Amino acid sequence: MSPLSQPLDLLVVAPHPDDAEISVGGTILKCISQGKQVGVVELTNGEPTPHGTVELRKKETERATKLLGLHWRHQLNLPNRRLEHTLEGRRALAEVFRLTRPRIILAPYWEDSHPDHVSASAMVDAARFWSKLSRTDMAGEPYYPPKIFYYWSIHLRIHPKPAFVMDISEFIDQKMQAVACYESQMLTGRSTAHPTVMDDIRDRARFWGWSIERSYAEPFASREEIRVDDISALV
User: Rounded to two decimals, what is the model's pTM?
Assistant: First the structure.
């Protein structure tokens, strides 16, 4: 990797291909429509899965990337299903932060039934700290990403209270098209009886939209306080 000519406004850290589209696809699309520089880094290639292959998942990811209009996407190729918060993984992710210099990082929520997601969340927190270290042979210059927000994964049926909820009503159809690019995960071998996996993803977005009196939305958590400069922006 080489340093980006223009730092990212938003970097999504995803344990696997499709996690970004499922969890924050609408937010990605909205930010890009606002002229923001947006990227995704996947920690693993997501394989093996029942109906996927490394080559197929790569093609699906390429289609989703094009549909979203991402400015940058990269994969660290850490071990899927055995993802652990190792020093090697932390270093690799810290180097991504140093080279892309994101203003905001979106990471998996820290509580989940999928071990890869839990490990990924811890790795992001630690890599954020390592990213600012000096006197190191890590690639890039020291950098401390200002903010991390955490997105909901889809495996654990809990409803934590979010710190804020992003209106994605205008982008729900594009989000679902991006998710559908991962046919091997969303469609192949799955029941077509209602509710399908695609129905579940859309219905969750509808619930969060209902919670803020909009059509569709995506929720986010924060460990730190969020500054507001204009109270009228909250209405």
Answer: 0.96
